[in-house]
Amino acid sequence: MDWSILIAQATVNGLIVGLLYLLMAIGFTLVFGVMRMVNFAHGEFYMLGAFGAYFLTTTLGISFLPALAITFAGAVVFGAAVEWSILKPFRHDELNGMIATIGLAMILQNLALMFFGPDPVSMPSIARGATRLGQIAIPTARIYVVIFALAVLCALYIFLKKSKPGRALRAVVEDFEIASIQGIRSKVYYPLGFGIGVGLAAAAGALMAPLFSVSPFVGAAPLLKAFMVVILGGLGSIPGAAVAGLALGLVESYSSLFLSTSTADMLIFLIVIVMLIVRPKGLLGQGEV
Amino acid sequence: MHIKALAAALALALPLSATAQEAETLKIGALVTLSGAGASWGQGMKNAAEIAADEVNAQGGLDINGKKYKVQVVAYDDKYQANEAVTVANRLVFEDKVKYIIGPVGSAPVLAIQPITEKNGVIVITLGFTDKALDKDKKFTFRPNVTTVEVAEPQITWLVKSQGLKKVGALFPNDETGHQIAKDLAEAYKKAGADLAATEFFERDRVDFVPLLTRILSKGVDAIELDGNSPTTAGLIVKQAREIGFTGKIIRTGGPATQEIINVAGPDSTEGMFVHTPVNPDLPSTKAYADAYAAKYKHPMNGFSPAFYDGTKLLFEAMKRAGTVTDTEAIAKEMEQIKDFPGALGNLNWTGQEVYGSNHQLNAPFYVAEVIDGKEVIRATCTVSGCE
Fold it and tell me: What is the ipTM of this complex?
């Protein structure tokens, strides 16, 4: 293989992975935008989404798309219920709220450990083999995942831009006080925002489940990536998360092509640190944090 | 004074006379991992010791010079952690007063408890894969399972020859274990006449291997080696290598994890994969043990379990030969001398003088299997000296 093909291959790999990071990070940043709170349980909702999709497809025999929809809807409801029942007292107490989410993460992970056991399970791939574009090989399963991820993102975009509750939610993200003055009820939008945020994490988990394996421990790595994307893009900024997610995927892919993998991992953290020093509010952040 | 001395003498004599009439109890410690990631291995080791104990107890106890001992297994969980292992080792040695320990599972835990066990003459039968576990000064530690040091070379030589491998690629976790295995494998492949041409190191929590595999495949390798990776990671590598269109051989020359890899990667991706396996399920003695295990514990045994059944039986044999259950120095000496012992794994001898400086490593047969329809099919039988 010559270099131009390798670079093209790395670009495709990077964009696919970046899109998956993006899905994870958008939910994370949405929750932050609404609640001003870092949700450390985000990774565990990703894990629950992966298990949800796994059981719906393998045990109940539902096909992948409806399973994804059910997982997402279930996670939105569950997330809203969690916000309403557990996080409500912390709505204006972000620091303790964050600690509550750490506790929530531990509880969810250990519950998963008790019910599903520590051994990883594998979900059958959506599709087999590779699709070739010229000499570039793309796993067919990943193409499907990308299509579904784009569909989820489009639906989110339309919801946030066009629908009334979506616009209200954006208003809450942008400025909570002004939004309240305009008559937007926080009673509804706190649980809704949190629910949609973790719903997106669960959707990311469901989408990644057939690509990777499913176990109670799968949530940690995507949480870290989401964190990095959100720091790079600016906490609470959805367009920032989009740009940073794709950029992180590409940087990872190129750097692991040209450098050794451990150097590549170091480089990513270096970029995050430089970003924090040079531009702490992130690429497109509002700088109020 | 007299009364005191008499009382002391009585206190000493009483428990002795009380126990002399019935069978005495011989305690064996099982210091294994019973929770978390290594639990399936630890469970298999504890159960192996229990099955061996049940067998002698069914005959009225272990017969040492005409005296019968009931064998009791005392199990503790080390959670696969060195500090936890030290805590429970102290408990076993100083409170339960055991002289024999089955375990631990991990390398770090065994190295951590050896200062206690070696100093107090406690015989340890461990799984720990580190080459530092056995040493000419560690007189009381034995290992009944073959490790990468024993299995890598004969298997690689056989695979390179029979499959015509030339260029091999491999991915390893970026830590001490990973780098050590990478070095060992590179030498083994070189000796066998092939080239470990592409190696990549990654952080342990990584799940996306497509970029790394792209790099490896661009070097034109005809096989991928999975040794050194955890079962889940190995499964992900297999799955993703097949997804980006790799059609060459996939090999795992160490660490039995076939079922876990198939679980993660699916039976299609693993078809034709060559794996190391420490047991031949068709061997009559192994089958008898597997059946006894399944009957008692209602789930299939782990691949390491028969080695620890054999290890416990070897320990009993050494006690009989030494004619004592307390003089562990004599027992350890007798243990080393056992030759051609018929175990569940087959014909057993000790080896390791060249590598470790002491013959405390069991030389049990092991196998290269090919995965067909999600099942292991034995292709070659190996010993430390070679495969055929």
Answer: 0.72
